[in-house]
Amino acid sequence: MELSATTTIDGDRIQEYAKKLRSEGTLEYWTLSKLARNLNNEFNKLKGQNRGKLKQRDLNITPELIAHLQQKFSEYFNQQFWLEKAEFILQGLKQWKAKGIILTKPEISLTLSADLNKDETTVELSLKELCAAESASELLASIIAQQSLRDELLKLLKVATKPILVTEPRLFINSSITSIPTPAILASGLQAQLRKDLWFESNGLAVFQHKCQAQSDNYIEHYISNPGDIELLPWEAAEQIINKFGFTSAKLHLIYAAHTMKQVNPWESDFTLKATNIIKELGWDKRTDLSQSHKLNEIAKAAFALSCFVSRAFWIEGRTKNKVNVSYPTGRTWDSVIEPCGTADIFTRKIEQPYEVFITVRPGLWTKHFLNRAGAKAKQALYQFGYLAQKVLQIDPYHDELALRLALHLTMESRFHQSGRYEVKTLLKMALPETELETARSDKRKAYELKQRWDNALKLLISLDWQIQYDLESYSAWLQPGNQDKKRMPKGYIDKLLAAKITILQPTPIPDLIAIKAEPQAPTSLLSKQTPITVEQLRKVREAKGWSQAKLAGWLGVSRSLIALIERGQRPVSPALETKFRELLDI
């Protein structure tokens, strides 16, 4: 690639233009696309030679393929490359402006001649295409000279022609919020990942237990299993998986849940996610301290940990005089397959630097039992949901750990704690080990640090549009964040802070959306148009579901004898009870 030696460009201008070329990425993309097509042509030639005929195949230029080539040839696109291309393009434009021609090789001048009568932008694009074509040819020559590299890339092209997985779009393309299911198992699962200190050993197994607030007899337990089967791991082995839990797995847990809500059959369908999209959901695409492959590996590690996460629900379904009927389903919280894409290390056989990770997910089969059979008003558990704000996923745990813990907890709890009113102590006990609170009550320095962390967490939530109100009676102005009074805090201030009351609500319009959904529906007009439920219909539907009269009575909160009287036609069905029958039995 040559231009007239008499054409000179200012060095600063070349530097500036080189920076622009590099940042816009067009030249690099064109070069690698042309290289991929040239390699594909080589593949077709080899195929024709081996089979006696040339059978062409199409190449799918995917972002994953380009990303892999970028990684493989990153050293080629060095500073010298960008300076040389910048100088060539600027010299070509200068000659074109002065003479209407570009003095370079005859065959290249001929190639460009059709564009020389057009505008400057068209000429500039033509020069970029020329640079891309020559660079691709240069790279191809170096690849052909290295047999091992050529074989590796030809294998990569084989992969590139395979059918592409249908993946889910990103969650927050058109909105900054998305709906998210909040049944008890998912809520307790989130807490199990955030509070690793609450796991304990029982009969040699690692266990996390969550007792339900509404009915203390009901509880949920979490265990750790092998990724391939449901065998529960002993404490020592399970602890290694538990240590992989944290903010990344907790956020991924919520992302799985949010995508579940978007399926046509939410608790029955599987779906595939691209880790490169998850990186954007988490805001990691803006991080420059980690390579893309490192980010993808972190997502894969979190997905692996979730694949070992087992849930068991102990749920009272009904009571009789002498016994309690319970549901005790056990299964993986999420069933998943994790597929990293990239070149395997020749020695370890592992893909150390993936260019993509595909995660195919479906809710575990516990949903068949817990959501459809157990739990108060069982059927409704399918439709318990709140809303997740994208900014919650992008809170940095390194700088704002407490704010993230609060935001994640409040997101899952907002559906059934709509007032948002809490004691500060309640929120801190949820987020932190209780020993930290006790230490703060007896150690002045720890008290100061705890208050600073709490204040900074509130400030961050406010900056993310969360709505916070301080109780005027218990949360004095001098206790609130941003207080300008420089006086020394009075003795016992940490106890006053812990006892203070505060209201924290998610960003608008989430509280309004939750409130609208929670409003009771008036069924009278609907019922008046429906044929009343018959005794025979009620009995047949109940038996078809395999439910006893006692089980149905337990879910409805009535006695078994009432159900028996209704089915014998000796007691009429009230409008309120008919509504419950229709909701629970899908009549």
Automatic annotation (TrEMBL):
SUPFAM superfamilies (UniProt xref): lambda repressor-like DNA-binding domains (SSF47413)
Annotated GO MF terms: DNA binding
Pfam families: HTH_31
Domain HTH cro/C1-type span(s) in chain numbering: 538-574
Coiled-coil parts of chain: none
Protein's name according to its UniProt entry: Transcriptional regulator
Organism this protein belongs to: Aerosakkonema funiforme FACHB-1375
